[in-house]
Amino acid sequence: MLAPSINQSTLFAMIGIFKTNIATPEDKQHVIHAIHRNFEVGHCHVDLEDCDKVLRITEMKVEENAMISFVQQQGFNCEVLD
Fold first, then answer.
1. First-to-last CA distance in the chain?
2. E strand spans, the chain
3. CA angle 43-49-55, nearest 5°?
4. Which domains does the chain carry?
5. How far apart are CA 56 and CA 54, in angstroms?
6. Which class for 46: exposed (0-12), middle (13-18), buried (19 or more C-beta within 10 A)?
7. What is the pTM of this model?
8. How many of the other CB atoms lie within 10 Å of CB of 50?
9. Of the candidates 14, 52, 75, 78, which lies 20 to 30 Å from 27 by C-alpha distance?
10. How far is CA 44 from CA 6, 33, 70, 74, in A?
11. SS3 28
């Protein structure tokens, strides 16, 4: 039996939701710009008002672990939000 084919549009519809410690508007802009410069993504948003400082990325074309490592390289905590 052949494995089911994976639709490319399904791969690109992934949404990443991460808990971070991004705290300032300047840090928020830094991370968002860095993500857009280095990855193919749709919209990025950090909710500074939320207690988990949620980073939400639409149309994420990268694995979660790669994004977590990248945000950590920018100097911030990052983990998948449960």
1. 35
2. 16-20, 44-46, 55-57, 78-80
3. 30
4. 9-80 (3.30.70.100)
5. 6
6. buried
7. 0.83
8. 13
9. 14
10. 25, 9, 14, 15
11. helix
